[in-house]
Amino acid sequence: MKTSVIGGGTWGTALAIVLAVNGHEVTIWSALERERKALTEAPDQIRNLPGARLPKSVRITGELNEACSNRDLIVFAVASPYVRETAKKCRPYIKEGQIIVNVAKGIEEGTLYTLSAILEEELPGADIAVMSGPSHAEEVSRGIPTTCVAGARTKKTAAFIQDAFMNEFFRIYTSPDVIGIELGGSLKNVIALAAGIADGLGFGDNTKAALMTRGIAEIGRLGIKMGGKIETFSGLSGVGDLFVTCTSHHSRNRNAGYLIGKGYTMEEAMKEVNQVVEGVYSARAALALARKYNVAMPIVEQINLVLFEGKSAAAAVSDLLLRDKTQEHDSLEW
Fold first, then answer.
1. Is 89 one of the catalytic residues?
2. Annotated catalytic residue within 2, 56, 155, 188
């Protein structure tokens, strides 16, 4: 296939490596000259991808016309705050029916749109799909066994994406639950901030396990209200992605949370991590969605207070533990 990756960050580069290994023609587009220069001049010394090597066959460009024209598949790997802006710039070059798979994770704060909804609005003639799962770029780029799920409006498109990416180390499942996949991938970043904060405060495995378990309960409650399926939240883009993001040293969201737990401000933590911390951008949108759909999301609420209202991390944990008594699952009858 003739493929392009829009976005030359770590995840986009890792997926470009997978596509090239699979024998596809690959072009990476990046808006950043320094990124393009680094990928071209030092393909075996990629920033934040130690041990990875970009195949020589991969083309690097700063021209969207070159990256978007005459493609079988376009991978949208732009950080969530820049998806709409980049999509607008791509629009003149996107053909009718173009398959685009979004692999970034986030929710737009102003509109409360998922990223696929943004792409559908800005690129109305395209066939928009998503791919998500427990998949740190640092490991995928080195061929460490990984599994993800591709979601699309039709089984044919999902299978097309599955065929493009799947190999002996990168296994892809398919699903029709696009909204569920996106919400799992976006909201888990907010929960991962909480898990990192707990680590920074010096709490133990019990605390983190509780945050992850109650976190997936919050994600599932909202996701089902928004049309997602419970099977998705118990799958790769739900508990799978949540667990790896909350526990891994590769996780920028967990690492930012850890620094906040150590006393850093949100701004200081983001500067120290020096990558886009998607959970910070999704936190307000997640709280707005909770209120819109009348869903209880106490972890998300406390994270917002810590990030944006100056509440101490220790006080947030205390308030979570001292909430009113309740039973674990309201749907279970005595």
1. no
2. 188
